[in-house]
Design goal:
By secondary structure, the protein is α+β, with helices and mostly antiparallel strands. It folds into two domains: 218 residues, FAD/NAD(P)-binding domain, CATH 3.50.50; 146 residues, Beta Barrel (Elongation Factor Tu (Ef-tu), domain 3), CATH 2.40.30. A seven-stranded antiparallel beta sheet has the order 17-16-13-14-15-12-18. Helix 8 packs antiparallel against helix 9. The longest helix has 21 residues. Bound molecules: flavin-adenine dinucleotide.
Length: 380
C-alpha cells in the first residue's frame, strides 16, 4: 500500500489538534455526536470501530493520556505520540508514504487506476482510497482535491462550509458582544431548525467573547448547525444556580442592573443591560416591576436571540461541514456505489463530528471499515 500526500510534513492536523495534545477520541463518542444530511449513515462504521478500539491501540503503544472533560481523551505529552503510533502501525503493515508529491492526474484504466505525479513517475493501483480531509486550515495542506475528484467520478457533493468555527458580530447591531474580549460564561445555545438541513441542537458549554464576536466550545458546537442569516438562542441563565434565581422576596430590593451584575461578569452584565435597557426599565427594583414584565425579562435571558453576521472562515475552522454525499457510498465499506474500486473516508465525506475527539473517531472508524473491506478482497 502506498500513501501519497502533497504536504511537506504529514499529519499536520494531528500535530496541531487539541492545542498540540491531540484529542484523539472521546470515550463516549456515538452516533448522536455526528451530523450529516443523511443522518445515520455513520452509525455502522462507528459501531464497528469504537473509541475503546482506538484507546486499546494507544495503550498498546504505551502512550500516556488523560480525560480532560466530558470523555475527551488527550495525550499527556504531545500529538507527536499519535503521529508516531500511526507511523509505527504503517511500518508494520508495510505501507510506504510518499510526500511531498503533487498528484497531476488520476485516470481510470481498464483494471486499475493510474496516478500521475507531477515531475515524477506514475503508479497504478487496483483500489483507490481518497482521504484528503476537509478544507479547514489551507495553510497546512487542506484542499478541495477530494471533492473535485469525487465530483468527477459522478458522486454528489453536499454544500461545504467551515464548521467548529467562531462566529462574528462585528458591524451588527449586536456588536456589544465584541466589547468584552476574554469574558467567558457557561451558557446553553440552541441552534438550527428541526427537520431542516442538519437539524437542531442545543449545547451547554462555555461561550467566550472575542474582539470579533463569539467563540468557545458552546459556540463552536453551535456553528456546525448554524445557517447564514439564522439567529442562535442563548440561555444565559442555564448554568446559574436555579434556586431563588429571581425570587421576589430575596432579590426584590435589587434593580435589574444589580441582578445582572450579581450573576454575570461585570462587562457581560453591562452588555446585557445595554440590550435589555432598550425594552425594559432596568434601573427599577425587581419587586417594583410587574409580574408580567419580570417573566418577560426572564424569558428574554433564557432565549436571548443573537444573530451572527457570519463565521471566521476556513482559516479559523476546525472542520468542514458537508462533503461527499453519503448516498453515493456504502456505509459498511465507504466504497463508491458507482465504482467498486473507489473508497472515500474521513472528513471529505459529509459526516461531521461535534467538538471533543469525535472527528478523529470518525476518521479512525471510516478508515477501519474501508481497510477491512479491501483486505477481505485480498484474502486467499
Ligand atoms: C486546528 C484544528 C484542531 C483540531 N483538533 C481536533 C481534535 O483535537 N480532535 C478531533 O477529533 N478533531 C480535531 N480536528 C479535526 C481533525 O483534525 C480532522 O477531522 C481529521 O484530521 C480528519 O482526518 P482526515 O484523515 O479525513 O483528513 P486530514 O487529517 O486533513 O488529512 C488529509 C491529508 O490529505 C492531504 N491532502 C489534501 N489535499 C491533497 C492533495 N490535493 N494532494 C495530496 N494530498 C492532499 C493533506 O495534506 C492531509 O495530510 C482539528 C482540526 C483543526 C484544523
Amino acid at each position: 500500500m502506498v500513501v501519497l500526500d502533497h504536504a511537506k510534513k504529514i499529519a499536520e492536523k494531528i500535530r496541531i489538534s487539541g492545542g498540540g495534545r491531540c484529542n484523539f477520541t472521546n470515550q463516549d463518542s456515538g452516533p448522536a455526536n455526528f451530523l450529516s444530511l443523511n443522518p445515520g449513515f455513520a452509525d455502522w462504521a462507528l459501531r464497528q470501530y469504537r473509541p475503546q478500539d482506538f484507546i486499546g491501540l494507544v495503550r498498546s503503544h504505551r502512550i500516556p493520556f488523560h480525560e480532560k472533560h466530558s470523555g475527551q481523551l488527550f495525550c499527556d505529552r504531545s500529538s507527536q505520540d499519535i503521529i508516531g503510533l500511526l507511523l509505527a502501525e504503517s511500518l508494520k503493515g508495510a505501507v510506504s508514504i510518499r510526500h511531498p508529491v503533487e498528484i497531476a492526474a488520476v485516470v481510470r484504466e481498464a483494471e486499475h487506476w493510474r496516478i500521475s505525479l507531477t515531475g515524477l513517475d506514475s503508479l497504478t493501483c487496483r483500489q483507490l482510497v481518497v482521504a484528503t480531509g476537509g478544507m479547514a486550515v489551507p495553510a497546512i495542506g487542506a484542499s478541495a482535491w477530494g471533492l473535485d475528484f469525487a465530483r468527477s467520478r459522478g458522486l454528489g457533493i453536499t454544500p461545504v462550509r467551515a464548521g467548529l468555527v467562531p462566529m462574528s458580530f462585528t458591524s451588527t447591531d449586536q456588536a456589544w458582544v465584541t466589547q468584552m474580549p476574554g469574558v467567558s460564561q457557561r451558557v446553553s445555545i440552541s441552534v438550527g431548525e428541526a427537520g431542516h438541513g442538519y437539524g437542531q441542537a442545543c449545547f451547554l458549554e462555555d461561550a467566550l467573547m472575542t474582539h470579533k464576536g463569539l467563540s468557545g466550545p458552546a459556540v463552536l458546537q453551535a456553528s456546525n448547525y448554524w445557517e447564514q442569516g439564522q439567529a442562535i438562542s442563548v440561555d444565559w441563565l442555564a448554568a446559574l444556580p436555579q434556586d431563588n434565581l429571581f425570587d421576589e422576596r430575596e432579590m426584590g430590593r435589587f434593580s435589574v442592573v444589580q441582578l445582572l451584575e450579581h450573576w454575570f461578569p461585570k462587562r457581560l452584565a453591562a452588555g446585557l443591560a445595554l440590550s435589555l435597557g432598550e425594552d425594559y426599565p432596568i434601573d427599577r427594583k425587581w419587586a417594583e416591576l410587574g409580574r408580567a414584565v419580570r417573566e418577560q425579562l426572564i424569558d428574554r435571558l433564557r432565549s436571548f436571540s443573537l444573530k451572527p453576521a457570519g463565521h471566521l472562515g476556513w482559516n479559523k475552522a476546525e472542520v468542514m461541514r458537508g462533503g461527499v454525499c453519503t448516498k453515493g457510498l456504502d456505509p459498511r465499506t465507504l466504497q463508491s456505489r458507482r465504482d467498486s474500486s473507489l473508497y472515500l473516508i474521513g472528513e471529505v465525506v459529509d459526516v461531521t463530528g461535534h467538538l471533543g475527539g469525535h472527528n478523529f473517531q470518525w476518521a479512525w472508524a471510516s478508515a477501519h471499515c474501508c481497510a477491512m473491506a479491501i483486505s477481505a478482497q485480498h484474502a486467499p
